[in-house]
Amino acid sequence: EADIYQTPRYLVIGTGKKITLECSQTMGHDKMYWYQQDPGMELHLIHYSYGVNSTEKGDLSSESTVSRIRTEHFPLTLESARPSHTSQYLCASSTLWQLGQETQYFGPGTRLLVL
Amino acid sequence: AQRVTQPEKLLSVFKGAPVELKCNYSYSGSPELFWYVQYSRQRLQLLLRHISRESIKGFTADLNKGETSFHLKKPFAQEEDSAMYYCALHWPNFGNEKLTFGTGTRLTIIP
């Protein structure tokens, strides 16, 4: 079934650890996104990609990095986690933009807690 | 800069009463606006887009360019409408297309 997956769903980790949040989609979409969302707050775009080997920083500065080696896979990495990275991370994907038809499909999210 | 404002963080409405969730935007070009919804323990998902002029689950939203608004309305609220609602603006800046989300409004329908 076409879907967008995120793992892990929950992660509790100590300061200084390296972590990778996985995002995969089987929807055949070219565009993928990472958002950061604190509880009850707005979504902030931190990274996006228009296709393989394409990555761009979003509106909110983030110490994380991303890669897009395969169309379906868009992992996010934090080299050294800090408590300030505690948040929910949402992955999304969409087809190439057509007038007014932009629809982003979201994954279930990863809740990260850095102690 | 493109901006989306949802002035109400929380909104409580009695079942059967009309609902209006406010959204204002600032954008110099031709806006493309959307409403996304997140029900409890579910993913964020598209509710409706202005270009389709559609009614989804009884909700409609009209783009008012004069007032730069895209308010979401429903004449008779139902309990299952309780959710978090986000207004979003998409600007077709070639090579830099993305969505800007508002801060969201948590709608609670009182039985």
Name some characteristics of this structure.
heterodimer, A: about 120 residues, mainly beta, 4-stranded antiparallel β-sheet, about 0% helix, globular, B: about 110 residues, 6-stranded mixed β-sheet, 3-stranded antiparallel β-sheet, about 45% strand
Walk me through the structure.
The complex is a heterodimer of chains A (115) and B (111). With 115 residues, chain A is mainly β. Chain A contains no helices and eleven strands. In chain A, strands 2, 4, 5, 6, 9, 10 and 11 form a seven-stranded mixed beta sheet that branches. In chain A, strands 1-3-8-7 form a four-stranded antiparallel beta sheet, with no helix packed on it. Chain A is globular, with a radius of gyration of 14 Å. Chain A starts with a strand and ends with a strand. The model of chain A has no long low-confidence stretch (mean pLDDT 90). Helix content of chain B is 0%, strand content 45%. Chain B contains no helices and eleven strands. Chains A and B meet through strand 5 and strand 10 of A and strand 5, strand 6 and strand 10 of B.
- Distance between the ends of chain B: 40 Å
Helical content of chain B stands at under 10%
Distance between the termini of chain A: 36 Å
Helix percentage of chain A: under 10%
User: Overall 3D geometry of chain B?
Assistant: globular
Largest interface: A-B, 24 and 25 residues
Q: SSE order of chain B, as H and E?
A: EEEEEEEEEEE
Which structural class is indicated by helix and strand composition of chain A?
mainly beta
Number of DSSP-assigned strands of chain A: 11
Mean pLDDT of chain B: 90
**Mind describing the biggest β-sheet of chain A?**
7 strands, mixed
Q: Please tally the β strands of chain B and state the result.
A: 11
Segments of chain A where pLDDT lies below 50 for 5+ residues?
none
Helix segment tally of chain B: 0
Oligomeric grouping of the chains: heterodimer
Mean pLDDT of chain A: 90
Report the total helices of chain A.
Answer: 0
Please trace the helix and strand order of chain A, writing H or E for each element. Answer: EEEEEEEEEEE
Content of β-strand of chain B? over 45%
